[in-house]
Every structure is written in C-alpha cells, then in structure tokens.
Specification:
single chain, alpha/beta, Rossmann fold, 2 domains, six-stranded parallel beta sheet, 6 strands
Length: about 210
C-alpha cells in the first residue's frame, strides 16, 4: 500500500483527489494539508510514501515546502500536482527536490501510475514538461537594478524566503512580528515587480549563485 499526503489549498480539490485515489487498491490517503507549512509538519509526522504537492498556496508555497522537506527529510518523495506549467515553477520545483511534476488535468490512471513510479524512485514529468526542464538556461540572469532599493531588513527577509521560511519563521528569526514580515514581503514584491514568493525565492537563489561564481 502506497501512503499519500494531499497538499492543496482548495478543500474541494483535496476531496476529489481523495475520492479518486482511495478507489485504487494500492493507494491510501493518510493525511491532508492546505498550505506548505502544514505539509512539512504533516509529512514529518505521518511519513507518507508520496506527497502530492500544489504550487501556489498561502503561508508557504509548494516549492518552498518541497525545498524544506528535501533539507529536513530527503527520503520523502514529493510529486508536484498543479495547474501551473510555467518554466520557473517546473525547473525550480525539480531543483528543490521534487521527484515529479504533473498538471491537474492528468487522467486518474496516469496520476496513479506516476505515484507508483515516484514511490519506486523514478522521476516523472507530465507531457511537455521535460522540455521545459532541459531547455531552462542554467545561467543566472543579472539582478534587477531595483534590488539596490531594498533595505537591509528587506534583503534579510528575501534571503529567508529563498530558504523556504514561512512568515512566522521569518518573524521568529528576525525578532519581528508576522505583520511586519508581511509588509516587508509585499514591499519586496512591489519594488522588484514580482508576482509571488516563488519568483522572489528564484531571484534570491540567483543572487546567491552570482555571489559564489
């Protein structure tokens, strides 16, 4: 029996996935989480065989959760299941330790096969996603000039976002309130013209890469 943890911020999606997967004789859903932070906590507590992880979620997104799990429990296997197939999501998720990446329109039988493959240690990518990973440029782009407008505190917050930290963890690390962290995050996204925390984490990771070259 392959034990599964479902991670998605939409309850109706988790309910549908549970119904589909529990119908398979060799699959069993043992837990659910609605954001990345809960996913990390549940995964470490329940030790599932495969974690089905969405990407865009509140508090901590799926890519950051995947990175955290890869660092804290590298034996756990993450299979990304999302509606987003942008290059940066696919490549970053795989670089941060995901064993597979599928879109939510994947037929249930193919999803089950992907789960079985990942559980056995194979990597599984949905149609067309392999090309996105292979054609992604390995060179880090130069940092935007707006990076110089960030305050020292905002740069600290940005580095902690790249480390996969949630707002609460950032607040604890910097001895500030979660509200203050949220304000810093919003300021960072606005100044750098970024869509979400995932793009911020990608930028911070690229900055670190440039420093080490």
């Amino acid at each position: 029996m392959i034990r599964l943890l479902l991670v998605d911020d939409q309850g109706i999606v988790r309910e549908g996935l549970r119904s589909l997967l529990d119908a398979k004789p060799d699959l069993e859903v043992i837990g659910e989480a609605e954001n990345g932070q809960q996913a990390v906590e549940q995964a470490i507590a329940l030790q599932p065989d495969v974690i089905l992880m969405d990407v865009r979620m509140p508090i901590m997104d799926g890519v950051a959760a995947t990175r955290t799990l890869h660092e804290q429990a590298p034996h756990l296997k993450v299979l990304i299941l999302t509606t987003f197939d942008e290059d940066d999501y696919v490549t970053r998720a795989m670089r941060q330790g995901a064993k597979g990446y599928l879109l939510k329109d994947t037929p249930s039988n193919e999803l089950a096969e992907a789960i079985r493959a990942v559980q056995k240690g194979y990597t599984h990518l949905g149609p067309g996603l392999f090309d996105k990973v292979m054609t992604a440029t390995p060179a880090a782009p130069p940092p935007p000039p707006e990076i110089n407008e960030l305050t020292p505190r905002e740069l600290e917050v940005l580095q902690l976002i790249a480390a996969g930290k949630s707002n609460r963890e950032i607040a604890d690390a910097l001895y500030i309130s979660e509200r203050t962290v949220k304000n810093h995050v919003n300021s960072i996204l606005k100044r750098l013209n970024l869509r979400d925390r995932t793009q911020a984490a990608i930028l911070a990771t690229n900055l670190q890469s440039l420093k080490t070259e």
